[in-house]
């Protein structure tokens, strides 16, 4: 191993008293950290922090570095924050004008620490400029061994910055790139088009989670808001009073026939006992100012006895509300959805409701976590006559433009519910505490807490238990993109929601990756498709039973024969006493067991039997791909195939096509070849319409 001679040290191009934020606006009252601070640059209150980031992640730390490494780290961070700094330009370095984000720079400072540690354990020079290309390559190989290769991007970026920014670094930087001409993926040994690693949420988790979220929003939320308003009113009226006035308030409360004594929940350490603290508040006595129901005095014990007299009369309630919504429980019983909504439980349930709103919006909007958290109060609007929400698009755009995400009405309700909970001045998904309106939260943590709470209380709430497993914010986006993939036009809709509108959705590999099927959902998709296909077949059967026309063509005749056979078999079962008379379910049950193949389409239906494709025009003289079963839709000839059914719903399309072709055929001076093609298309359409007229 050989190392070059150290270059002479230079002074930094930045002054110690220079502010590090010069290329972006400061928040009102914000004071920028200074370049000379060797410990940490705290950006909280200095520049705008995304709503989904914890304040800890809005700092750039330089701890754990020697003075030489520390200066180099601060210099590169300074350049990334101010790429058009006059001193940087004077060094002949011309970078993109957009400053790097704190969340980009922070892990790169961690890469400096990791690189310094690697050098010390391998007895490499403390001067990084004396490392050889092989040293850097061994370091990256080491990072790929201990971590996922994809996490090595920050380490490669730091090493290359030592070369790219060498003219502006006091250490002199690296004189050459260890990997000239190679992309970061090539350096890390990653495929140029990596697959999306985000897993979809399994269906056995997705469905109970989304249903639980919607139940909280649509069923439990009204009770929580009532309880919140009641408790705020109670606390506002309670006063620090003397004993004489407290006695008067207590007597007034006792004489009110509507007064109820609040009890602890049955599953609490004080199960069924009077909640004396809540009772004091409800009476109007501030409990911290006067221990009104103390057991240490005879008068206090007497007051307790008076309240317990109401308990013996049944005038009680669990918690601060007595009329919570009732639900059906797994054991067959019915009761309130919460055992006792005490003030502490109210706080916990409001947290759960906020998590439910977040999960529901994440599931049904395909917004990123950062974009959901940036939703402001009053941002639900109509966009092209469709409900939508305005939020800030975070990824891939330095200007952070406002974008619209189309939503369904329940998702709008979820956002409005979250906004009603939030004490933050602007954000819908904000703090739940008025004393800390700017308090943040971790989205992944609230999802985990929500699932745990559902599973803990499912015996009371009646909600289905959610299987254990990791559920992270970005997994909702992946799952919904995959679910919408099979719907017509979904590549456009998903592309719009994922904001990949600049290129056609299917040409974008990221969008394709999000829309790829997941094995956990395969069985569910197949069953759902089979159920929907049978539902439509049953509708045709019922229409044929009523004597209505279900279609035209040889395929329709064969289908009517199959339906007639089902009805005949059902009648035989009734005559022999094997089925009840008048029960249409007999026919439907037989129909489900009948081996009748049908594929529903926009222009016709296809009844081709995969095991006996004789007569299928689409397969004649065709090269069938290996392993393929079924018809070839792109070669379908509805007018000439014996498997085709033209349904009543298809006729308007065929008649409109006939009118269009006829008008086009009458165009003067058409080329002979074009006329011949139009004549052939007209003949096909007329064959179809002739079958209809002759029926």
Question: How would you portray this structure in words?
Answer:
The protein is mainly alpha-helical and 695 residues long. 47% of the residues lie in helices and 5% in strands. The protein contains 22 helices and 11 strands. It has helices at residues 67-81, 86-90, 102-121, 133-146, 153-164, 184-188, 203-237, 243-255, 276-283, 298-312, 343-365, 369-373, 409-421, 443-461, 473-483, 490-497, 509-515, 519-545, 554-575, 585-593, 651-665, 672-694, and strands at residues 40-42, 59-61, 261-263, 316-318, 326-328, 334-336, 380-383, 386-392, 402-406, 605-606, 644-645. The protein has a 3-stranded antiparallel beta sheet with strand order 7-8-9. The protein is flat and about 90 Å long. It starts with 39 loop residues before the first strand and ends with a helix. Residues 1-5 and 487-512 have low confidence and may be disordered.
What's the overall geometry?
flat
Largest sheet: number of strands, sense, barrel closure: 3 strands, antiparallel
Q: Based on DSSP secondary structure assignment, what is the total number of beta strands?
A: 11
What's the alpha carbon Rg, rounded to whole Å? 36 Å
Q: Structural class, judged by helices and strands?
A: mainly alpha
Share of residues in helices: 40-55%
| Strand portion | 5-15%
> What value does the average pLDDT take?
85
Adjacency order of strands in the biggest sheet? 7-8-9
Continuous helix count: 22
Distance between the termini: 90 Å
Which regions have little confidence, pLDDT < 50, spanning 5+ residues? Answer: 1-5, 487-512
């Amino acid at each position: 191993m050989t190392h070059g001679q150290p270059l002479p040290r230079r002074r930094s191009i930045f002054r110690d008293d220079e502010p590090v934020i010069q290329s972006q606006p400061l928040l009102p009252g914000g004071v920028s950290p200074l370049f000379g601070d060797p410990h940490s640059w705290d950006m909280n209150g200095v520049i705008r922090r995304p709503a989904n980031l914890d304040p800890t992640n809005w700092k750039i730390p330089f701890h754990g570095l020697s003075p030489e490494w520390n200066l180099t780290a601060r210099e590169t961070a300074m350049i990334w924050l101010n790429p058009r700094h006059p001193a940087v330009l004077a060094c002949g370095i011309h970078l993109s004008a957009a400053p790097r984000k704190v969340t980009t720079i922070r892990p790169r400072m961690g890469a400096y620490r990791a690189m310094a540690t690697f050098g010390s354990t391998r007895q490499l020079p403390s001067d990084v400029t004396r490392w050889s290309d092989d040293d850097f390559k061994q370091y990256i190989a080491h990072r790929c061994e201990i971590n996922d290769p994809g996490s090595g991007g920050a380490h490669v970026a730091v090493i290359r910055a030592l070369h790219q920014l060498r003219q502006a670094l006091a250490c002199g930087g690296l004189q050459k790139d260890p990997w000239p001409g190679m992309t970061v993926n090539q350096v890390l040994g990653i495929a140029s088009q990596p697959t999306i690693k985000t897993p979809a949420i399994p269906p056995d988790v997705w469905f109970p989670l989304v249903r639980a979220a919607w139940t909280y929003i649509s069923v439990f939320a009204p009770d929580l808001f009532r309880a919140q308003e009641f408790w705020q009113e109670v606390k506002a009226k309670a006063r620090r009073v003397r004993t004489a006035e407290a006695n008067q308030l207590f007597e007034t409360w006792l004489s009110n026939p509507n007064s109820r004594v609040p009890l602890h929940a049955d599953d609490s350490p004080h199960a069924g006992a009077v909640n004396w603290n809540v009772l004091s508040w409800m009476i109007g006595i501030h409990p911290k100012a006067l221990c009104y129901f103390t057991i240490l005095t005879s008068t206090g014990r007497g007051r307790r006895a008076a309240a317990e007299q109401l308990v013996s009369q049944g005038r009680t309630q669990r918690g601060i509300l007595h009329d919570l919504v009732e639900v059906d429980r797994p054991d067959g019983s019915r009761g309130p959805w919460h055992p006792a909504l005490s003030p502490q439980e109210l706080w916990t349930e409001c947290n759960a409701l906020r998590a439910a709103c977040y999960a529901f919006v994440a599931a049904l909007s395909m917004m990123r976590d950062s974009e959901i958290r940036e939703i402001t109060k009053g941002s639900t609007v109509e966009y092209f006559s469709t409900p939508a929400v305005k939020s800030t698009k975070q990824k891939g755009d330095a200007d952070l433009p406002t974008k619209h995400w189309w939503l369904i009405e329940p998702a709008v309700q979820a956002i409005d519910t979250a906004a009603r909970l939030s004490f933050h001045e602007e954000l819908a998904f904000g703090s739940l505490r008025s004393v800390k309106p700017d308090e943040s939260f971790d989205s992944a943590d609230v999802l985990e807490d929500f699932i745990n709470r559902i599973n803990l209380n499912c015996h009371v709430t009646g909600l289905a238990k959610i299987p254990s497993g990791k559920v992270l914010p970005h997994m909702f986006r992946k799952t919904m993109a995959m679910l919408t993939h099979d719907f017509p036009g979904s590549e456009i809709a998903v592309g719009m929601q994922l904001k990949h509108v600049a290129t056609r959705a299917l040409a974008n590999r990221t969008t394709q990756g999000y829309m790829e099927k997941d094995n956990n959902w395969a069985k569910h998709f197949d069953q759902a498709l089979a159920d929907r296909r049978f539902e439509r077949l049953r509708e045709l059967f019922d229409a044929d039973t009523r004597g209505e026309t279900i279609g035209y063509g040889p395929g329709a005749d064969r289908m009517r024969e199959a339906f007639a056979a089902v009805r005949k078999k059902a009648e035989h079962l009734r005559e022999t006493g094997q089925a009840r008379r008048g029960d249409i379910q007999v026919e439907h049950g037989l129909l489900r067991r009948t081996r009748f193949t049908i594929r529903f389409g926009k222009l016709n239906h296809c009844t081709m039997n995969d095991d006996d494709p004789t007569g299928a025009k689409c397969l004649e003289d065709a090269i069938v791909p290996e392993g393929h079963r079924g018809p070839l839709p792109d070669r379908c000839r509805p007018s000439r195939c014996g498997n085709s059914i033209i349904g009543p719903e298809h006729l308007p399309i065929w008649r409109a096509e006939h009118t269009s072709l006829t008008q086009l055929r009458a165009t003067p001076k058409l080329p002979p070849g074009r006329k011949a093609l139009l004549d052939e298309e007209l003949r096909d359409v007329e064959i179809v319409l002739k079958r209809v007229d002759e029926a």
